[in-house]
Amino acid sequence: MTISEEDARRARTYGHADLTGLMALMTGDEKHGPAATSTLDVLWVLYDRVLRVSPGRMRDPGRDRFLLSKGHGPMAYYAVLAAKGFVPVDWLPGFGSYGSPLGHHPDRTLVPGAEIGSGSLGHGLPIAVGAALGLRAQGLDDPRVWVLIGDAELDEGSNHEAIAFAGPAGLDRLHTVVIDNSSASHARPGGIAARFEAAGWSAVTVDGRDHEALYAAFTAPHPGRPHVVVAQVEPKSA
């Protein structure tokens, strides 16, 4: 399926440099500013260069699935969706207001392009594992599942069960991006990537602001294994 002429025009019009301006339109009571800005570069590289999804393919069984588990502070996500034509730009000023489809956590029933609703930390990666298993069961070998989580989510046991399952299951269509802004409560010996590697994942750690490094990490081959990219950004308290 191809995107409409208007979708294509919008994608040509907006670039990464415009995202902060789009975010500035969202003037609601946002309590997770650092959480939003920490994801900005990762989201842009994914939607601009990696994900095989567009406004015209939202119901295409062959599309990639992107799951935003780190849903608190979704301004960057909404800005990217607007830049790529999933949601109208004129929705942005109403962010967080009564009756706006753009809430403080994305709602999959209200936000075009959102695959899941977010809320409690620790749900996104287990859902992504289930999505990858579901695609495998349907014989859909081409679509990829991507999930964006925060390092603090790794304090939740549900994520470690998902990590432990996905490696031995060989879910090579599963991709996880961990935004590491040093907000986790519990340190891990060897770092975040080591936890995934111990469970049989392919893992790489990169500068979460370096677009070329992110793209290389996102597209690195990992036959037979799920893949995680740890994107390090400035500490949340900085």
Descriptive key words:
238 residues; alpha/beta; Rossmann fold; 12% strand
Would you mind describing this structure in some detail?
This protein is α/β, with parallel strands linked by helices. It has a domain at 32-71 and 112-232: 3-Layer(aba) Sandwich (Rossmann fold). 33% of the residues lie in helices and 12% in strands. The protein is built from nine helices and five strands. It has helices spanning 5-13, 19-24, 33-37, 40-50, 75-83, 124-137, 157-166, 192-198, 211-218; strands spanning 65-68, 145-150, 174-180, 202-207, 227-232. It has a five-stranded parallel β-sheet, with helices on both faces. Strand 2 (145-150), helix 7 and strand 3 (174-180) form a beta-alpha-beta unit. Helix 4 (40-50) runs parallel beside helix 5 and helix 4 (40-50) crosses helix 9. The longest helix has 14 residues, at 124-137. The mean pLDDT is 89.
Structural class: alpha/beta
Shape: globular
Q: What is the fourth-level CATH superfamily of the domain at 32-71 and 112-232?
A: Thiamin diphosphate (ThDP)-binding fold, Pyr/PP domains
Measured on Cα atoms, how large is the radius of gyration? 17 Å
Mean pLDDT: 89
Record field, number of beta strands: 5
Approximate strand percentage: 5-15%
Summarize the structure.
This protein is an alpha/beta fold.
